[in-house]
User: Which sequence fits this backbone?
């Protein structure tokens, strides 16, 4: 390929969720459709996922999880602010509600994040190349400060800042999702000064909210890339300039490929969720392996890479 216009990390989230998710992600990696994965260390097939990453040389980071399943830190599994009476995390919205009511202890958040990094290292043999948050918990108020401190202490260089250009011109997004994504975006914007203060880096542009599940198509991905090129390297300070005058845009595309989970097989302790058992996951596998998508990347001079290559 001639000098790329964009270096794109395509990250398969929820690696380790179940064997069928793992297989779909590996198939996409082998087809050239993804270039990185984020591991859920408290998920039922995390060890298998880590072994697959080693076998296939897949760049791997940590998908820090504070909202689904059971904590990794044993001392937090019974009496802690992070779990409900059944010993499970509070859930995507429940975690946010508990945070708003000042019911979460940030020292316990820190203990759990450090325990997840420790388990990640035991499973993979190295520190995560990047670390982000399952269901975007890492950009929430208070959590973002603890998260940034942990990354800085452990010298994990990259994270995700989910501010997506073009989010507000998507009529196909249902109102409830648009509301949630708008709040995620606000939280992410508020996290930027915190992450900068701790010297943490992230790609210039984030993509993936508008192209999730059935919304993933060649036209929607082309539209997302177009927005990314327009947003350009000015979005953050982390861009890498090429030898020519034209700076290379760095971007991350978040994806969730996999074959649908079998009922009762997978998840993080509570079984697989509805999205995991739906056809949306397999649709993403089909799109990410589509030769016309790989042709689009070549045509637009988009080079897939890992975080360490940015």
Assistant:
């Amino acid at each position: 390929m001639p000098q790329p216009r964009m270096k794109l990390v395509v990250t398969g989230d929820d690696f380790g969720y179940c064997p069928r998710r793992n297989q779909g992600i590996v198939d996409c990696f082998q087809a050239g459709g993804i270039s990185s994965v984020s591991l859920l260390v408290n998920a039922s097939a995390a060890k298998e996922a880590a072994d697959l990453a080693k076998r296939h040389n897949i760049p791997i980071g940590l998908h820090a999880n504070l909202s689904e399943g059971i904590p990794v830190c044993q001392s937090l599994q019974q009496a802690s602010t992070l779990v409900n009476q059944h010993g499970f995390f509070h859930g995507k919205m429940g975690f946010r509600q508990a945070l708003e009511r000042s019911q979460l202890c940030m020292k316990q958040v820190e203990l759990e994040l450090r325990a997840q990094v420790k388990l990640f290292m035991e499973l993979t043999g190295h520190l995560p190349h990047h670390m982000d948050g399952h269901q975007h918990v890492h950009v929430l108020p208070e959590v973002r400060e603890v998260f940034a401190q942990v990354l800085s202490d452990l010298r994990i260089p990259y994270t995700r800042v989910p501010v997506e250009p073009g989010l507000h011109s998507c009529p196909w997004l249902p109102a409830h999702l648009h509301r949630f994504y708008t709040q995620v975006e606000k939280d992410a914007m508020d996290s930027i000064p915190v992450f900068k203060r701790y010297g943490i880096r992230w790609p210039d542009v984030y993509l993936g909210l508008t192209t999730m599940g059935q919304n993933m198509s060649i036209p929607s991905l082309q539209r997302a890339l177009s927005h990314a090129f327009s947003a350009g390297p000015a979005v953050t300070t982390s861009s890498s300039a090429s030898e020519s005058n034209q700076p290379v845009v760095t971007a991350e595309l978040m994806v969730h490929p996999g074959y649908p989970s079998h009922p009762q097989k997978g998840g993080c302790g509570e079984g697989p969720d509805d999205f995991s058992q739906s056809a949306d996951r397999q649709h993403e596998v089909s799109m990410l392996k589509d030769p016309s998508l790989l042709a689009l990347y070549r045509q637009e001079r988009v080079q897939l890479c890992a975080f360490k290559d940015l």
Summary: Strands lie at 6-15, 36-39, 60-64, 131-133, 205-207, 240-241, 247-255, 302-304. The longest helix spans residues 175-197. The two ends are 17 Å apart (CA to CA).
